[in-house]
Write a structure and sequence with these properties.
Largest sheet: 5 strands, mixed
Protein name: BED-type domain-containing protein
Radius of gyration: 36 Å
GO molecular function: DNA binding; zinc ion binding
Keywords: Metal-binding, Zinc, Zinc-finger
Length: 634
């Protein structure tokens, strides 16, 4: 007897009698304040349920948990309004069931493996994280029973990913005519790693592209011949030894020795940089007498040169002047604030106050980071700074020290801005260096008269800038790179020098190989013989060459007279565009290879020591190149 029939007989009265899902249950017996019913949906299995006479919540939970999406038969006595309500409840159950089905279809074991692989690579996690019980429970709980792949599977995926990445990168580089590489050595935790990255400009979109080529550990003594062998070996492995315009390094002595020894004379060499016949002997330290190795020209890092101006020339100037003691006391107090915030355990109340102030604490002391931190401190009000020093129990800054720091931030803001420009990657070209240095000197000179503390220091820095960047202003390649950048053109040059620069651009453009100029512009030079008059022609070759030279000169003139600053305008000047690609492929800074070492600030930590050197390199290459060669294939 179902519940509805039992109600008609008058043998029981309970909340289930008016419930819209009562047709799913059969009354069995009374049990004090409860009744016992049989679930009809569980048949043929007998499933007796107990529920209160005044509530149906237990039965509703049973339907939701065991019979998700079940159809409820509307009670005819409840009317149209309740029928609509029942329909909404039914649709809600259907949506929940559909969502569960979608999740079960999307989260396959293969998909989970790919996501875990991305997590390991992008965050450079130890492979042992796969064996951590907490991580395994997390994945199992989120995926409703799917498992974490083992380390053998992860090793296989890393190997396959690296092979696919190298193949894709070789294909991309095969169609590129000009590339630039950056190289550096990083030592941490008693390990030394050699990093080398590659950069080029897409000839169609004119966007900067970057990729990491190698990140091996240096096991033996670091010497100029072993570094040279690493650089050349990497260039050969990716078939770019004849495409590299320059290799950008910092100004440290190992790289200076490398390129003094192996770089060929630019006046004597062709586009072929030369080949080294037995790279392995260099790597093993067994040099042959007749063995020659020519590397591409070296480009010193412009951002490193700016940092040297601060870390060496500025400190020398300030130490010899009357402001030495004031500078020392001011920076000592500033560093004490940073140390208390970063290294000492502070109370929750103080930590919350520091968070609200958005105080910058430099974890890695580099000058641009230090400058931003000082800038943030002087932006605090006098009350905020006094309260902060009191809470941290450090000596507060005196008014004269605050005035000194404020002028320090104001005077060196142009230098910090220039350093940020040089350390950029996507929109940074060799042609940016000369205009940046000229603007930097102008900005510093403008502040010299108003400076109370740094007047003499500005003069010393201006002299240091001239000395350290002299080679850029005497280098024709840097000048051509600047002139072919639409943002600058020839506006940075004196009027008396512009005509000579136009002639240099025209000469360079006319010497471009035929394959360097688009086919549409060279098709008119192809020989077409259609009649005897075409065959018996004299002096046409000379006339054609003269016409071509006039065309080159006219294109240079139109470009120089233009006003557009976007790179898109180079599409109207094919020869200038080729010059731009050739000379602006070079980066002015080695910052990209430094990001290979220290991106996210935690690459060289103890947890990385659980990775072998080989797989540590593979993880770094996959992570760095994920923008040009995606980790996962669709």
């Amino acid at each position: 007897m179902d519940v509805e029939q039992r109600d008609v007989c008058g043998e029981t009265k309970s909340a289930i009698n008016t419930w819209r899902y009562r047709h799913h249950f059969t009354y069995k017996a009374d049990q004090g304040k409860n009744i016992i019913v049989q679930c009809n949906l569980c048949l043929p299995r007998v499933n007796l349920l107990s529920t209160s006479k005044t509530s149906t919540s237990n039965l509703k939970k049973h339907l939701d948990r065991t019979h998700l999406g079940c159809e409820a038969r509307p009670d005819a006595k409840r009317g149209r309004k309740k029928e609509e309500y029942n329909g909404e409840e039914s649709r809600h159950c259907q949506l929940k069931k559909l969502k569960a089905e979608i999740i079960s279809k999307c989260l396959t074991q293969s998909k989970i493996d790919d996501l875990i692989f991305s997590f390991i690579v992008e965050d450079c996690q130890s492979f042992y994280v796969l064996e951590q019980p907490g991580f395994q429970r997390l994945i199992t709980g989120l995926t409703e029973g799917l498992k974490v792949m083992d380390r053998v599977t992860l090793f296989t995926k890393v190997d396959q990913g690296l092979t696919r990445m190298r193949e894709e990168l070789l294909v991309k580089l095969s169609s590129i005519q000009y590339v630039c590489t950056t190289a550096d050595i990083w030592t941490a935790n008693d390990r030394s790693f050699f990093g080398i990255t590659c950069h080029w400009i897409d000839p169609e979109s004119l966007e900067r592209k970057s990729a990491a080529l190698g990140f091996p550990r240096l096991q033996d003594t670091i010497s100029y011949d072993s570094i040279a062998g690493r650089i050349h070996d990497t260039h050969v492995a990716y078939n770019i030894e004849n495409k590299v315009q320059t290799t950008v390094t910092d100004n440290a002595s190992p790289f200076a020795s490398v390129f003094r020894e192996f770089v060929s004379d630019s006046q004597e060499r062709d586009d072929d940089f030369g080949f080294f016949e037995n790279v392995r002997t260099i790597l093993e330290g067994e040099r042959e007498q007749d063995m020659l190795l020519f590397l591409p020209p070296v480009q010193r890092c412009a951002s490193h040169a700016l940092e040297q101006i601060i870390t060496e020339d500025f400190w020398q100037a300030i130490s010899e002047g009357p402001m030495c003691q004031l500078h020392y006391s001011s920076m000592t107090k500033v560093f004490s604030i940073w140390n208390k915030c970063h290294h000492v355990q502070v109370g929750m109340e103080v930590a919350e106050e520091i968070r609200k102030m958005a105080l910058v604490v430099p974890a890695v002391i580099r000058w641009n980071v230090e400058y931003c931190a000082v800038q943030k401190i002087i932006s605090l009000s006098e009350r905020e700074l006094t309260e902060l020093c009191a809470r941290l129990e450090v000596t507060r800054l005196q008014p004269e020290e605050m005035a000194f720091l404020k002028e320090y931030v104001t005077v060196f803001h142009p230098l910090a801005f220039a350093l940020e420009l040089f350390q950029a990657e996507q929109k940074c070209y060799l042609g940016l260096v000369i205009p940046t240095i000229l603007s930097l000197k102008n900005k510093l000179n403008e502040q010299k008269d108003a400076a109370s503390y740094f007047g003499d220091v500005i003069n010393s820095i201006a002299v240091a800038i001239d000395v350290r960047f002299q080679e850029f202003f005497s280098n024709n390649e840097a000048k051509i790179a600047t002139a072919t950048t639409p943002q600058f053109r020839l506006w940075w040059m004196a009027a008396s020098e512009r005509e000579e620069m136009c002639s240099l651009l025209a000469t360079e453009a006319s010497q471009m190989e035929p394959r360097d100029v688009p086919e549409a512009n060279t098709s008119r030079n192809l020989s077409t013989i259609k009649s005897e008059d075409d065959f018996f022609s004299y002096g046409s070759a000379k006339t054609s060459a003269q016409n071509q030279q006039r065309g080159v000169t006219e294109e240079i003139r139109k470009y120089v007279e233009g006003t557009g600053k976007s790179l898109e305008c180079l599409q109207d000047f094919p020869r200038v565009k080729q010059l731009f690609l050739k000379y602006n492929t070079t980066l002015p800074s080695s910052a990209p290879v430094q990001r290979l070492f220290s991106q996210k600030g935690n690459l060289m930590t103890s947890q990385r020591n659980f990775l072998t050197d080989d797989y540590f390199e593979r993880i770094q290459l996959l992570r760095y190149n994920s923008s040009v060669c995606p980790l996962l294939t669709e």
